[in-house]
């Protein structure tokens, strides 16, 4: 990864994605450039200077000459801030996607002395770990953490949930969110070595594709994973939503630990870390993230996840 000098001529630096290179290599005519994506990850709009003494031609000169990243194909790192086109030019607020840590107790920092969850969604990968650490359904205390049940899905309170909408108190939540601001499809990316997505009916979801870095991408648009996010009260307030203004949809899913994590410590030994509780019980964990991106607005958020296994 490097920067391109943007102080002189305009440079067009384009690359194919992993999916594009795969279709091109097939040589069967399936390769067609049909979609483009643009982003402004490198731009600091605070550099706009409306008081520049040289005149209006220089107001945005620093922005225009900002070095830009060269094109690269890593789908996890590229285009964090995608540009979108909206027909309504009178918008004061744009929608966001926020991680909801108000439902149940699944989002946890774990024990304060050991930080078992460490502010992540803790996935207990097998039954031995669940029996040792607690898991969903047991009282939270010094020993137990309220983690996701990695071997199977128990109850809806185990779901990882994201709320979408306008997060502002300036507009009441009783108003409907504009259709072009409402997310009806989400793209979820997860390291396929560690687990897969499970819906609220305890059904595993097959990834749309898995790239050469073993990152599985899921295109999710159907119930029960994606449902409307409604206000619960007449005044628009809600006891379980983290969106303050008009609401769009919510995304809910859980994680099923992979067979490799359940039956082996290989990946834990390779990329994990070990900790001890009560001086005699050892555990291993792997920290990773699950990337959630709205297909309409391009807004994205990363959810921290910790896979935990009793050794």
Give an overview in words.
- There is one protein chain.
- Helices cover 10% and strands 28% of the residues.
- By secondary structure, it is mainly beta.
- The protein has 2 domains: 1-83, no CATH class; 96-310, no CATH class.
- Strands 4, 5, 6, 8, 10, 11, 14, 15 and 16 form a 9-stranded mixed beta sheet that branches. Strands 3, 7, 9, 12 and 13 form a 5-stranded antiparallel beta sheet that branches. The protein has a two-stranded antiparallel ribbon with strand order 1-2.
- Strand 15 and strand 16 (300-310) form a beta hairpin.
- It is globular and about 70 Å long.
- Residues 104-114, 136-144 and 153-157 have low confidence and may be disordered.
User: Could you state the order of secondary-structure elements as H and E?
Assistant: EHHEEEEHEEEEEEEEHHEEE
Cα separation of the termini: 38 Å
Average predicted confidence as pLDDT: 80
Structure annotation, total helices? 5
- Beta-strand content: 25-35%
Radius of gyration: 22 Å
Shape: globular
> How many structural domains does the protein architecture include?
2
Secondary-structure class: mainly beta
DSSP strand tally: 16
Taking the sheet with the most strands, its summary is: 9 strands, mixed
**Low-confidence stretches at least 5 residues in length (pLDDT < 50)?**
104-114, 136-144, 153-157
How much helix is in the residues? under 10%
């Amino acid at each position: 990864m490097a920067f391109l000098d943007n102080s002189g001529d305009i440079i067009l630096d384009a690359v194919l994605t992993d999916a594009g290179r795969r279709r091109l290599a097939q040589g069967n005519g399936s390769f067609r450039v049909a979609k483009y994506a643009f982003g402004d990850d490198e731009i600091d709009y605070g550099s706009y200077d409306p008081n520049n003494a040289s005149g209006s031609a220089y107001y945005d000169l620093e922005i225009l000459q900002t070095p830009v990243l060269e094109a690269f194909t890593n789908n996890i790192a590229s285009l964090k801030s995608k540009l979108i086109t909206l027909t309504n030019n009178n918008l004061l607020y744009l929608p966001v996607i926020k991680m909801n840590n108000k439902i149940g107790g699944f989002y946890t920092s774990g024990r304060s002395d050991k930080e078992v969850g460490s502010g992540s969604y803790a996935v207990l990968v097998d039954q031995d770990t669940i029996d040792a650490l607690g898991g969903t359904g047991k009282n939270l205390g010094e020993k137990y953490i309220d983690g996701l049940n990695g071997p199977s899905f128990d109850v809806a309170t185990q779901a990882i949930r994201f709320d979408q909408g306008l997060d502002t108190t300036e507009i009441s939540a009783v108003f409907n969110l504009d259709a072009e601001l409402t997310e009806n499809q989400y793209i979820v990316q997860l390291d396929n070595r560690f687990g897969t997505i499970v819906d609220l009916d305890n059904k595993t979801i097959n990834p749309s594709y898995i790239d050469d870095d073993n990152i599985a991408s899921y295109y999710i648009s159907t119930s029960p994973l994606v449902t409307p996010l409604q206000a619960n009260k007449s005044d628009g307030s809600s006891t379980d939503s983290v969106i303050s203004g008009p609401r769009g949809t919510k995304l809910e899913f859980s994680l099923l630990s992979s067979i490799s994590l359940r039956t082996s410590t290989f990946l834990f030994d390779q990329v994990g870390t070990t900790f001890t509780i009560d001086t005699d019980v050892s555990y291993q964990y792997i920290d990773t993230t699950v990337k959630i991106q709205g297909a309409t607005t391009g807004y994205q958020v990363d959810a921290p996840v910790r896979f935990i296994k009793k050794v």
